[in-house]
Amino acid sequence: MTSDAPSVSATTPDATAARVPTGPVAGFVPALEGMRGLAAVGVLLTHVAFQTGTFSVPVVGPLLGRLDLAVAVFFALSGFLLWRPHAAAAWGLGPEPSARRYLLHRAARILPVYWVVVILVLALLPGAGGGLGLWLANLTLVQVFVPLSLTQGLTQMWSLSVEVAFYLLLPLFGWLLVRLSGPRARWRVPVLLGVAAASTAWTFLPIATVDGVNIENWLPGYLSWFAAGMIVAETAAEVAARPAGSVRPRLARIADRRWTLLAVAAVAFAVAATPVAGEQDLTTPAAWQFAVKVSLGALVSFCLLAPLVLGTSVRTRWLGGEFAVTIGRWSYGIFVWHLAVLAVVFPVLGISPFAGQFPLVAAATLVLTVPVAAAGYALIEEPVRVFVRDRERRRRAVRPASEDDSAAVASNTETAGAATASTAAP
Radius of gyration over alpha carbons of the chain, in Å? Predict the structure, then answer.
């Protein structure tokens, strides 16, 4: 970052306890929930476009096909929300988060409704079920490593498998960068940029796999998408750590130029919709095309996310409004249920796959998916979240007083994450 960064230290318990992070550093950001809802709808639309054969329609088809970059937005949101406690600690705004508590909340957020979807799809959807290996691969979220495990109604779960791999490695990432704290915290963004750049070379590596397994579905190739959000988290923490009235970090000043960033995102998206980022069918892109696609996805997600978090004059009335936030709240359900619903929509409407009629199929899929997602949220997601939250509160109540400050900060950051973080469910 810039040389005018303040000197901060996260090594003094009294100092960290006194500076519990708030706002974009730890609190709920409604516009991000709205952005998540848009991303979920984007994923639904791109899958409907593919299964109705709309990709072949000039201009519109490629644009609908490249809505798969909504996954980049999901990943960047997860990177931002889940990295915030680590960034806050590095800039002297709180202690390092508890890995145990973090992993517990992630499991509670992701697994219950996911297991329900997998069991129902494999048991009831014709053509989806298979042998024990298929069941185990999907139930344990390792389907990207097991040949032919991305089955009907569950093919979108490749990105959830990538997301969960990121969740598991995040505490390790935090530990590796923990020495870049206090005065050295300004080096964290350059390190993350380096990791993002290096990850684009992933598919150039001569890694052999068995038939039916594609290394393009593994975490290393998508680290740049997560890093986009992590960089925003680092910048937000730096902004919060600087004295009032000091010069804002360069990335924060860039984020103030929302319309410029939106224009950049639009151009990057348009380029990604061309063959330079690979074909939009099941053809495996060349390594250089994959690198182009993930680079453009990282750019798009940063340009969309940074103004919402770092911008000082950005108006988010619609994205932060009740309707958008509600859709965002149901976004995980929309993601996990929509392909199963789509598989049912075709026979109900009497339409064959790849036979067109995108508007009708998209409308029917959206109208049916949203209530299912809402029910899943009300009956599974929210009750589990509340149960885990209350359990943690009871556990903290019997902790020694010396642990209270650390637990309070962890609760602040992780509860906000549970409210807005996705599985990121691409």
Answer: 21
